[in-house]
Design goal:
Elements (H helix, E strand, L loop, with lengths): L1 H36 L4 H9 L13 H15 L10
Helix pairs in contact: 1-3
């Protein structure tokens, strides 16, 4: 029974990582496009990301909830016109 629970937990962790990786991948594109258009905002973006990831390394985020919070705050702060638009 413990082996089953261990495998189940490993599957949940793996699934969470996959979800977080997808969110972060989309976020990476969003940040790169934003900074290409607004290079003067680089320090502000880094400061915001540092609230969620050590050394602003957002690619190290493995929890979907944390990744989603980062994306939401980034949009609210730097892209308020898109903050309330849900991604499909």
């Amino acid at each position: 029974m413990d082996a089953f629970r261990t495998k189940q937990k490993e599957a949940e962790v793996s699934e969470d990582r996959a979800i977080a990786e997808e969110i972060i991948s989309n976020f990476d594109t969003m940040v790169r496009e934003f900074l290409a258009a607004n290079p003067d905002k680089s320090d502000e973006v880094k400061a915001l990301i540092s609230k969620y990831a050590k050394n602003a390394n957002y690619k190290a985020i493995k929890e979907p909830k944390l990744a989603a919070k980062l994306v939401a705050e980034f949009k609210e702060t730097f892209m308020p016109e898109t903050a309330n638009i849900k991604e499909e």
